[in-house]
């Protein structure tokens, strides 16, 4: 069964039960108070007849009372103490007889209700005793035919039925309207997810509300966008990889073909084999880096953090890298203004810094100066690597951490990395719960800044 039909039925049944119970309760209360009211007024009328009789008990008064009652929808029967009828406004039928036969003992002066059953009896009735100073004693019975009361209640029931029917009708209309409004976004979400599962990510879900349904709709939309982005990225990634592989493989194949020629001198053959070796090395390196990235994606690589003194740590790397810089006619400087501790995996963190230094070296002209700067800002340790190189155009800046992205699209061997270095750096920094940011100006230089939380181990507290 469809969800909204189920929901609607539940609503309907619940409200129907609540409505029936409250209507029954209301109906009973109304009927009960109506009958009470009738009995009360019968008793009051009986009492006032009694007062008149006690003032003057004679034939005229008796007759007058009976005549008055014969004109109304109530009846009066006056009896003496032993129950003989003295006067009555109507014939004494079996219903009246049944009431007169009831025993009345210790009757209070204001009388009492004799018969309150309006369903099964012919009359409801009250009785009031009279006793004047001349010794005239007896009872005034007041009666009202239940036919009248039943007819009135019948009319009341009709009104109740109309009310119930109207309420049910409006209830149905409201439920149908509510369900339409409530389930419309759910149905479009269901269709959207169905579309997603078939691989079609072109989903647009309007977010109309700020509630949970709106949130869900937003989440599905985000999921669809992410999936579509991932699909696009994967395709581009595969295209770039195959491109990256095709170039060295073309070289390898080409030079292998030439190398097989019998007429080749040993020297020439050696030359071609060297090229083949270099290109294979290139492919090997690419696969190595891709494998590294894949491991990161699978969360298969582990970071083994330990407390490290930034000063010593960066100095060691600096010593290693300085020679490489010098050998290529560059300068590397280190500024570390303090001694702080951070929690890092030394092997991975060295990889991060070396990668950034490699870029600084690769994308700077000769004789330029690269500076490593370590400082503290609030509780953060900032490690920045600033070069005086060619800089990165501002339109490329947002993408440089993307896999296989390179500013120089020509992929020439000379400027040639794979565009994987920075994406590996970013993943590694994030695995250390740090962040990396970049500032760059074309022609002036680039500065990468890594931000890490300072760690306070026992050692640093003693300082
Ligand atoms: N310090 C820098 N100065 C100028 N451009 C830079 C610098 N660092 C990175 N870039 C630009 O960002 C691109 C991406 O850098 P990334 O390190 O990811 O790749 P790569 O150095 O080309 O290759 P790989 O590091 O995989 O060998 C580079 O191709 C380069 O265009
Ligand atoms: Mg690089």
UniProtKB/TrEMBL annotation:
Q: What class of enzyme is it?
A: transferase
Q: Where in the cell is it found?
A: Cell membrane
Could you tell me the keywords of this UniProt record?
ATP-binding, Cell membrane, Kinase, Membrane, Nucleotide-binding, Phosphoprotein, Transferase, Transmembrane, Transmembrane helix, Two-component regulatory system
Membrane-crossing ranges are 7-26, 160-182
Entry-linked Pfam families: HAMP (PF00672), HATPase_c (PF02518), HisKA (PF00512)
Which reactions is this enzyme annotated as catalysing? ATP + protein L-histidine = ADP + protein N-phospho-L-histidine
Q: Which residues form the Histidine kinase domain?
A: 240-456
Every copy of the HAMP domain together lies at 180-232
Question: Which Gene Ontology molecular function entries are recorded, alphabetically?
Answer: kinase activity
This protein's membrane topology, according to the annotation, is: Multi-pass membrane protein
Its EC number is 2.7.13.3
Q: Which InterPro entries match?
A: HAMP_dom, HATPase_C_sf, HATPase_dom, His_kinase_dom, HisK_dim/P_dom, HisK_dim/P_sf, HssS/ArlS-like, Sig_transdc_His_kin-like_C
What name goes with this protein?
Answer: histidine kinase
Q: Which organism is it from?
A: Alkalihalobacterium chitinilyticum
Kindly list the organism's lineage: Bacteria, Bacillati, Bacillota, Bacilli, Bacillales
């Amino acid at each position: 069964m469809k969800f909204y039909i189920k929901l609607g039925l539940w609503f309907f049944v619940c409200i129907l039960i609540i409505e029936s119970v409250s209507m029954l309760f209301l109906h009973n209360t109304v009927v009960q108070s109506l009958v009470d009211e009738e009995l009360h007024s019968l008793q009051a009328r009986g009492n006032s007849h009694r007062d008149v009789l006690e003032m003057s008990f004679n034939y005229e008064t008796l007759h007058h009372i009976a005549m008055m009652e014969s004109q109304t929808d109530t009846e009066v029967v006056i009896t003496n103490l032993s129950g003989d009828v003295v006067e009555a406004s109507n014939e004494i039928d079996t219903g009246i007889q049944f009431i007169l036969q009831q025993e009345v003992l210790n009757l209070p002066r204001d009388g009492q209700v004799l018969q309150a059953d309006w369903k099964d009896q012919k009359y409801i009735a009250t009785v009031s005793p009279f006793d004047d100073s001349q010794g005239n004693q007896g009872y005034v019975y007041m009666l009202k035919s239940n036919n009248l009361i039943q007819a009135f209640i019948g009319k009341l029931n009709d009104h109740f039925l109309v009310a119930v029917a109207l309420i049910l009708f409006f209830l149905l209309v409201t439920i149908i309207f509510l369900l339409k409004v409530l389930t419309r976004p759910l149905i479009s979400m269901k269709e959207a997810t169905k579309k997603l599962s078939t691989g079609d990510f072109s989903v647009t879900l309007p977010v109309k509300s700020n509630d949970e349904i709106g949130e869900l709709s937003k989440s599905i939309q985000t999921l669809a966008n992410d999936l579509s982005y991932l699909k696009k990225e994967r395709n581009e990634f595969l295209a770039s990889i195959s491109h990256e592989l095709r170039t060295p493989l073309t070289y390898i194949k080409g030079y292998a073909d030439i190398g097989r020629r019998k007429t080749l001198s040993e020297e020439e053959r050696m030359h071609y084999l060297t090229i083949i070796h270099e290109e294979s090395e290139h492919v090997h390196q690419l696969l190595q880096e891709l494998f590294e990235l894949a491991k990161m994606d699978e969360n298969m690589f582990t970071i083994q953090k330990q407390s490290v003194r930034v000063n010593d740590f960066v100095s060691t790397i600096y010593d290693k890298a300085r020679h490489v810089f010098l050998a290529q006619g560059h300068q590397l400087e280190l500024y570390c203004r303090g001694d702080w501790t951070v929690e890092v995996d030394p092997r991975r963190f060295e990889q991060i810094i070396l990668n950034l230094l490699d870029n600084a070296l690769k994308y700077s002209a000769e004789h330029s100066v690269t500076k490593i700067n370590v400082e503290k800002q609030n509780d953060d340790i900032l490690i920045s690597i600033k070069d005086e190189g060619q800089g990165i155009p501002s339109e490329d800046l947002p993408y440089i951490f993307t896999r296989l992205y390179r500013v120089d699209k020509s992929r020439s061997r000379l400027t040639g990395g794979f565009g994987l270095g920075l994406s590996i750096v970013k993943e590694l920094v994030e695995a250390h719960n740090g962040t990396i940011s970049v500032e760059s100006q074309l022609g002036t230089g680039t500065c990468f800044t890594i931000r890490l939380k300072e760690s306070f181990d026992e050692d640093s507290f003693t300082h």
